[in-house]
Amino acid sequence: MPIITVKIAKGRTLEQKQEFVQAITNEAVKTLNVKKEWITVLFDEYERDNWATDGQLHSIKFGEGFGKQGTE
């Protein structure tokens, strides 16, 4: 019974998360040879103020909206 945890910054739409869940579930079924209903996907979502890379908070480093569909 695989439990897959995904850590992402907040801001993704429900449609984006649903598409991702479908893709990762299908790949787990194929790769791990398990039933689709056995797979659980959990999202841990973080505010960009609580996530940093290279010594800089993502809210400052990347700005508002970074990573959302339709942005650079």
TrEMBL record:
EC numbers, comma separated: 5.3.2.-
Broad class of enzyme this protein falls into: isomerase
InterPro entries documented for this protein: 4-OT, 4-OT-like_dom, Tautomerase/MIF_sf
Gene3D superfamilies: Macrophage Migration Inhibitory Factor
Key words of the record: Isomerase
Record-annotated 4-oxalocrotonate tautomerase-like domain positions: 2-56
Protein family according to the UniProt entry: Belongs to the 4-oxalocrotonate tautomerase family.
Protein name, per record: Tautomerase
Organism this protein belongs to: Anaerobacillus alkalidiazotrophicus
